[in-house]
Design a protein that fits this description.
The protein is mainly beta and 754 residues long. The chain is built from 5 helices and 27 strands.
Length: 754
């Protein structure tokens, strides 16, 4: 019984060394060789101790103890009392628990003031161990003692079991015993010979069980555990809302070890059922404790908050002095076995380990703008489908308690957005595309005033997944109040006109059904004109499958151009030589066939595959194709910075169409290769050119993705100047395309500086 309670004491985190018994010294040994720690037997009687009587105890003999007990300042049994103190109290200097009540002598004397020679100091009927660690009562007050052994008879047919004593008899009925209303609590029971009164959604049934009531002493989250014990049976654990009540939780693991967490209000009672799997029965230990929100002791080797992370590995402890790791001194400062950048905290937070976090700090709602271009890949978020993109971090501290909305509306690349509790810590939330592809990601989180989270803005997908980002933080609103900002501040997954809150906003009505514009800004999933339900019955809106000329233009259904976009009823077959949708365009000439593989233009075979009248490199689909970019790059920029190049695009041909920053088709263009000599931010400008230029950069080579584009940059003496800035690593190569914004041509200047 003493060993069992000793283990419970360790599990409950009492101040005691829980590594095992006291070395190799046994209570019946007397050390008779000073300073060596070795037991010798000098007498002639039959036992193995060194006194002259025939018993084997060591604390009532008349000869002087020597050896380990001889040093008055030493603590021979490691119980927290010196040998001199043990002599004065009359306790055994070689027994850490003289009264065998489960509490070490030093814990009793120094921490609780109980008698180390009496297992029930106040004589009230409940032992010191149970009062202190199970019932949280006063071990010096006999009036508050409780019976921990459960019922000893009655209608249920027998006794239950307490913290260590197994009751007799046979259990039966809904309720077999009461755990009480104290935490932490330990209940030892045995279902052998019991009845099968309960079953849960996770159990197979047909096994004896115990139904135990528990009353929450306060409002909180409570953990019920069945540790797997040696020679134990295959348990299952269920919690009900009282007898006959709804199932609140159920867990069944092979071999035992179940645990469930239930949120309860103060005074709320539940029925905890310990069941067997497939007919098994036997002894069990049921532990009940409160779930604590954060790690309260960073050096107790216990997962206090039950989040699966212990002590300094838990982000709750990263600010604790005991967990501090100096990240560049080649010393394991916090004693967790990891040195410098191998340490979890250093690897996540230290510039010495190649990490800067956070890069930005916010102390109020608002907006932060930055760039992930050229930054490190410090984080891979759980919602990412493609990893290894550069990222940036923003620490936000709540100015007041409440829920906050974080979004990336305004970010120029495909992004992911995540929230961490601290830099390198636990991921709280992650989203990819809440507001729609390339519109923005969004997460919401509740924070108390002064609490902080770290937002991670990461890239997503293949291709252009880095660049300038925008992080917006706002208070969560009860309803959508602004209907034209692309943001979803009430966090209901509907932004602007798609939110029913905006149904009466003039901004959100399709007021012109023939202008080719989605006037209601996506209120109906971006339907335009006659596709919009707002336009039912409006002039110019043909219904495409009713056999009627609804808009009075003498054309019926798919013969009417109004139905050109009705793919459900007027879909073009791209290979049959028929104008299926009645829009005057047949097969690959029809815009509906633009994504059909049979209509892809092959750029070097002299055939017009897509039937648009343009063959090979004359076809816009072939712009950028290796067969059509034989001159790329037209030149390589080398030499000492700044570099100035004069050129003329007249007659050079339009190989690249237009960059993303300009809606016109573009004009003739020239290309230049540039390789960064050092890591720096570089400026590329067409200041002084004779025509309206357009300047954009491609990643790596002539077929690379566009990185950035500029047309008519403000602040220059020539209003038609284009200018871009890029942070490049040493040795990184880009292709610069000098193009026309309006189809014009002429002489131009290109300057590169850093």
């Amino acid at each position: 019984m003493r060993l069992e309670r000793f283990l419970v004491l360790c599990a409950l985190g009492a101040m005691v060394a829980c590594e095992g018994e006291i070395g190799t010294i046994k209570p019946d040994e007397v050390i008779n060789n000073p300073g060596t720690g070795t037991a010798t037997d000098d007498d002639t009687d039959a036992d193995s101790d060194t006194d002259t009587d025939a018993d084997s105890d060591t604390d009532t003999d008349t000869d002087a103890d020597t050896g380990l007990c001889a040093d008055p300042k030493a603590d021979a049994d490691n119980d927290g009392l010196t040998n001199a103190e043990e002599g004065a109290l009359g306790t055994d200097c070689l027994d850490d628990d003289s009264d065998d009540d489960g509490l070490p002598d030093g814990v009793e004397v120094n921490d609780y003031g109980t008698d180390p020679l009496d297992d029930d100091t106040d004589g009230g009927g409940t032992g010191d161990f149970d009062e202190i660690l199970i019932f949280k009562t006063d071990p010096l007050d006999p009036t508050d003692d409780q019976d921990i052994n459960g019922p000893t008879g009655g209608d249920t047919g027998g006794g239950g079991s307490g913290t260590g004593d197994t009751g007799g008899g046979v259990f039966g009925g809904c309720i077999d015993d009461d755990i009480g209303n104290q935490v932490p609590a330990l209940y030892l029971g045995d279902t052998t010979g019991g009845t099968n009164d309960h079953s849960g959604t996770c159990t197979s049934g047909n096994a004896a069980d115990h139904g135990l009531t528990f009353e929450a002493p306060f409002t909180g989250d409570f953990l019920f555990e069945l540790p797997a014990i040696p020679n134990g049976f295959d348990t299952a654990l269920i919690v009900f809302d009282g007898c006959g009540g709804a199932e609140l939780a159920c867990d069944d693991l092979i071999g035992g070890g179940e645990s469930v967490t239930v949120s309860l209000d103060a005074g709320e009672e539940v029925l905890v059922v310990v069941d067997g799997n497939t007919g098994t029965e036997g002894e069990y230990e049921l532990h009940v404790r409160e779930i604590i929100e954060s790690e309260i002791d960073c050096a107790n080797s216990t997962d206090d908050d039950n989040d699966g992370v212990v002590d300094c590995n838990d982000t709750d402890c990263w600010d604790d002095a005991i967990c501090e790791e100096i990240c560049d001194d080649n010393i394991d400062n916090n004693g967790d076995g990891d040195i410098d950048c191998q340490d979890t905290i250093c690897a996540a937070t230290s510039p010495a380990c190649g990490v800067t976090c956070p890069e930005h700090v916010m102390t109020d709602v608002g907006t932060v703008v930055g760039s992930t271009l050229g930054e490190n890949d410090d984080y891979d978020l759980d919602c990412a489908t493609v990893l290894n993109h550069s990222d940036q971090t923003v620490e936000f501290t709540a100015p007041s308690s409440g829920s906050y909305v974080f979004d990336t509306v305004g970010t120029v690349f495909s992004s992911n957005l995540g929230l961490l509790d601290v830099c390198g810590g636990n991921e709280l939330e992650c989203n990819d595309g809440w507001l729609g592809p390339f519109v923005g990601d969004q997460v919401a989180w509740y924070l108390d005033a002064g609490d902080s989270v770290v937002a991670v803005i990461d890239g997503e997908g293949i291709g252009l997944a880095h660049g300038e980002f925008t992080l917006n933080v706002a208070h969560l609103e009860a309803s959508e109040t602004v209907c034209d900002d692309l943001r979803d501040l009430d966090n209901d997954a509907f932004a602007d006109c798609r939110d029913s809150d905006c149904a009466t906003d003039p901004w959100c009505f399709e007021y012109d059904c023939n202008d080719g514009i989605d006037n209601d800004r996506g209120a109906d999933e971006f339907l335009v004109d006659c596709q919009d339900p707002d336009c039912i019955g409006a002039k110019g809106c043909e219904i495409c499958d009713d056999g009627l000329d609804n808009n009075g233009d003498t054309l019926v259904d798919c013969d009417d151009p109004d139905c050109a976009f009705d793919t459900a009823n007027c879909f073009e077959d791209c290979t049959n030589g028929i104008d299926d949708d009645g829009d005057g365009q047949t097969d690959c000439v029809d815009t509906q066939c633009g994504g059909d593989p049979v209509c892809d233009e092959i750029c070097d075979d002299g055939i017009d595959q897509d039937g648009d009248g343009d063959t090979d490199c004359d076809d816009t689909e072939c712009r950028g194709d290796p067969a059509c970019t034989g001159g790329c790059p037209n030149d390589v920029l080398t030499g000492t910075l700044p570099i100035n190049v004069k050129g003329d695009n007249t007659g050079e041909g339009d190989e690249y169409g237009s960059g993303s920053c300009y809606n016109w088709p573009g004009g003739e263009d020239l290309t230049y290769e540039f390789t960064a000599p050092v890591t720096d931010t570089y400026t590329f400008s067409t200041e002084g050119s004779s025509f309206d230029t357009q300047l954009y950069a491609l990643e790596d080579d002539c077929l690379g993705m566009e990185i950035v584009c500029s047309e008519d940059t403000l602040g220059h003496t020539t209003p038609l100047t284009s200018e871009i800035q890029l942070k490049l690593f040493a040795g990184q190569t880009i292709i610069l395309v000098v193009d026309s914004g309006d189809g014009s041509a002429g002489s131009f200047n290109l300057e590169v500086s850093n």
